[in-house]
Amino acid sequence: MSTLRGCPADLPRSPENIGFGALVVARAWKFDGSPHWVVPGFYLGQDEFGHWLHQPAGSLVARPGTAHLAATNALCLIPHRGDWIATMYSDASEDFDVYIDLSSNVGWLQMKRDAWEVNSIDLDLDVIRSRSKGTFLDDEDEFAEHSVSMGYPQKLQDSVRDTSEKLLESVAENSPPFNHAHRESWLAKVAGLATA
Description:
The chain is α+β, with helices and mostly antiparallel strands. Helix content is 20%, strand content 41%.
C-alpha cells in the first residue's frame, strides 16, 4: 500500500503487465491530501474507454470514520483519458445505476504481489443516474465549499464544471460506456475470476 500523505503525483495513466483477476485497490484522496474512499476490486481488462474492475458484493468499502460492506456487485471504469472514475451497478435493487466521481490526478501504482492501486483526487461533484431520480449532478454545495476551504484553482474549477456537463449529457443520452449493453460484456467476464 502507499504510505504517502496525499495522492501520489505523476503516476502513469495505465498499468503495465497487469493480469486478469489482479487485485486493484481504488484509493481516493481529497484535494487537501486527506484520505477518502478505499474500494477493492479485481481487474477484468480494458477497451477503448478504459480499464474495467469488478468490485464484488461484500467488499469492505471504507474511509476515515466510516465503513460498510458493499451490498451489490459493481463495475468500476478507470478511463484512459478524462478526469473522472465511474462505478456502474447491475443489480436492480441498487438505486444507483451510474455514479461518476469527478476526479483529478488519476494514476496507477504497483504494489506487492502483483496488486495495484488506482489513486485519484476526488473533486466532490458526482454525475449520477438513479433508478428513482433520473440523471443529475450531485454535491454542488460541497464543491462550492471545498473550492474555497481547500483552495481549488479557478482553472481546475472550470475544468471540473466543463467535464461534469459533458458527462451529464453522455449519461442522459445512455451513450457507451454508460449503457447496459456495453457493460454486459464486462459482467460476463466476472464468472472467470477466481474470487467469483
